[in-house]
Amino acid sequence: MDMSAFDTLTIAMPKGRIFGEATELLRQAGVPLPADVSEDSRKLTVSAPEAGLSFLLVKPVDVPTYVEHGVADLGVVGKDVLLEEARDVYELLDLGISPCHMAVAGLPDWSPVLHPKVATKYPRIADRYFREQGQQVEVIKLNGSVELAPLIGLADRIVDIVSTGRTLKENGLTELEHITDITSRLIANRASYRLKSGRIQDLYEKLASVVEKGEPV
Ligand SMILES: Nc1ncnc2c1ncn2[C@@H]1O[C@H](COP(=O)(O)OP(=O)(O)OP(=O)(O)O)[C@@H](O)[C@H]1O
Ligand SMILES: O=P(O)(O)OC[C@H]1O[C@H](OP(=O)(O)OP(=O)(O)O)[C@H](O)[C@@H]1O
């Protein structure tokens, strides 16, 4: 039996790094994911009407936008994106997947300057971090290959994600300060959270129980 649009839950899924772990977690929680909710698929929206579910396959940084505007009821997204985008959404659950951390890094022989230049994909996080440290910096926004900046004199330091540490190591950089730990989160649209509370609560509980068991996804 197909459910009405009112009962359908739309979930914004991040393509890329988080995707595999996120879909595996949903499967473990008993969510029937259609075969074309897959990294190989070029489809951007997939529905499973019999389960009352619909999936949007989107860029990770856009997940909070879809959820804030209510075109998705729920989303899966990294805490880094939530901190950077500062969207008006509920953060429901730490899914514990795709762990990494945000750090300040630089050349090992870096010596302090009064107003360092900081290159980053995360200008808000960097701004807030250095403000809290009482340090004035000039933030330079980049969209990738951030580790290059100190090597070629574009910046004195970087703020970026560290996971294995391989990118820092291979570029001769060293981690200077740990800013915050990052994992992926389940987020919800504020109105959906009230209007679809039964379905959202049901999925929340199933996911929370999988996360609590802590089995590798
Ligand atoms: N080593 C890592 N580097 C970057 N993000 C990581 C890492 N490990 C886990 N993550 C998580 O994965 C998310 C980024 O995923 P992904 O790299 O697919 O997206 P993206 O940054 O939009 O990709 P792109 O590099 O194409 O711009 C981050 O928001 C973060 O929460
Ligand atoms: O500690 P590691 O395991 O090396 O992972 C960290 C690196 O991975 C990410 O870059 P990404 O691969 O997304 O490329 P980008 O330079 O295009 O952002 C991140 O921005 C770091 O550069």
TrEMBL record:
<comment type="similarity">
    <text>Belongs to the ATP phosphoribosyltransferase family. Short subfamily.</text>
</comment>
<dbReference type="GO" id="GO:0000105">
    <property type="term" value="P:L-histidine biosynthetic process"/>
</dbReference>
<keyword id="KW-0328">Glycosyltransferase</keyword>
<dbReference type="GO" id="GO:0005524">
    <property type="term" value="F:ATP binding"/>
</dbReference>
<dbReference type="InterPro" id="IPR001348">
    <property type="entry name" value="ATP_PRibTrfase_HisG"/>
</dbReference>
<dbReference type="Pfam" id="PF01634">
    <property type="entry name" value="HisG"/>
</dbReference>
<keyword id="KW-0963">Cytoplasm</keyword>
<comment type="function">
    <text>Catalyzes the condensation of ATP and 5-phosphoribose 1-diphosphate to form N'-(5'-phosphoribosyl)-ATP (PR-ATP). Has a crucial role in the pathway because the rate of histidine biosynthesis seems to be controlled primarily by regulation of HisG enzymatic activity.</text>
</comment>
<dbReference type="InterPro" id="IPR024893">
    <property type="entry name" value="ATP_PRibTrfase_HisG_short"/>
</dbReference>
<keyword id="KW-0368">Histidine biosynthesis</keyword>
<dbReference type="InterPro" id="IPR018198">
    <property type="entry name" value="ATP_PRibTrfase_CS"/>
</dbReference>
<dbReference type="GO" id="GO:0005737">
    <property type="term" value="C:cytoplasm"/>
</dbReference>
<dbReference type="GO" id="GO:0003879">
    <property type="term" value="F:ATP phosphoribosyltransferase activity"/>
</dbReference>
<keyword id="KW-0067">ATP-binding</keyword>
<comment type="pathway">
    <text>Amino-acid biosynthesis; L-histidine biosynthesis; L-histidine from 5-phospho-alpha-D-ribose 1-diphosphate: step 1/9.</text>
</comment>
<keyword id="KW-0547">Nucleotide-binding</keyword>
<keyword id="KW-0808">Transferase</keyword>
<feature type="domain" description="ATP phosphoribosyltransferase catalytic">
    <location>
        <begin position="59"/>
        <end position="208"/>
    </location>
</feature>
<protein>
    <recommendedName>
        <fullName>ATP phosphoribosyltransferase</fullName>
        <ecNumber>2.4.2.17</ecNumber>
    </recommendedName>
</protein>
<comment type="subunit">
    <text>Heteromultimer composed of HisG and HisZ subunits.</text>
</comment>
<dbReference type="InterPro" id="IPR013820">
    <property type="entry name" value="ATP_PRibTrfase_cat"/>
</dbReference>
<keyword id="KW-0028">Amino-acid biosynthesis</keyword>
